[in-house]
């Protein structure tokens, strides 16, 4: 059985992935993220990834009101590390493919071949509306058609000396982009819809999945694996997990409960409305939200053994190739994870 891959989702936005007044509040600074990246490599994680975010959700915590830019930060972290894979996020809906191709060729060179491009096409309308870059008439299907043609263009620019391509979304007219990367950067994609999974199977090397339960996650993972194989490709599947770790299960559960007590409901409303949900609907939902909604991903609470068992269970039952991990307090939580949990997951306990 192939070994699982584990990485960390960097807290490039203030607050990390906890929407709470009583949770730790990671800073959106290079210094904070550099320490996380260096410690991720130190404990033996496989990759680090950062999102691209252009507007926050407000609330009492000003959640993600401050963010760093993904490519710039990851280029710096490539210099700060030597073995961990460097996965940066690129919005196909705002970056021209020729610009993106050149940026990732550069990151591949800087990182010594560790670069990965996480391709997204925008789901939070308001962060692009503020720039005049949101096309409300573009359907979900057209958004993925754009992303597919964009990805094809980037791939050609990485391998061909001159590219001419006419698209409904961009134009390449005898476009040159040299040097070519010595090895193609890894392609990453997150998606839940059928169109998103089809895109992952056809173009991605790594697919990030979300689902309502483990059975659905297994269904999605099998689909991407099998569909990728039908294209003659191997696609690895991942999901996200927030880890609340302490010496005992009771201490970890108490910590998670404390984080939930400070749930920032105004930020929850801001997050939902940024998806295009009407404000009154978003507020009605947030009014009934419980402390668990402070966590933006599925999460596990427990001492080392419970966390180990949980991770082994979900990766096995959902047939995942790995997980991207989130920690409420990266500086306090990651090293204990590396000491008490990761060796067992690697079969070294």
From TrEMBL:
Pfam families: Bac_luciferase. InterPro entries: Luciferase-like_dom, Luciferase-like_sf, SsuD_RutA_monooxygenase. The keyword Flavoprotein applies. Keywords: Flavoprotein, FMN, Monooxygenase, Oxidoreductase. Residues 5-313 form the Luciferase-like domain. One of its GO terms (molecular function) is alkanesulfonate monooxygenase activity. It comes from the Bacteria. The keyword Transport does not apply. GO terms for biological process: alkanesulfonate catabolic process. SUPFAM superfamilies: Bacterial luciferase-like. This is Pyrimidine oxygenase.
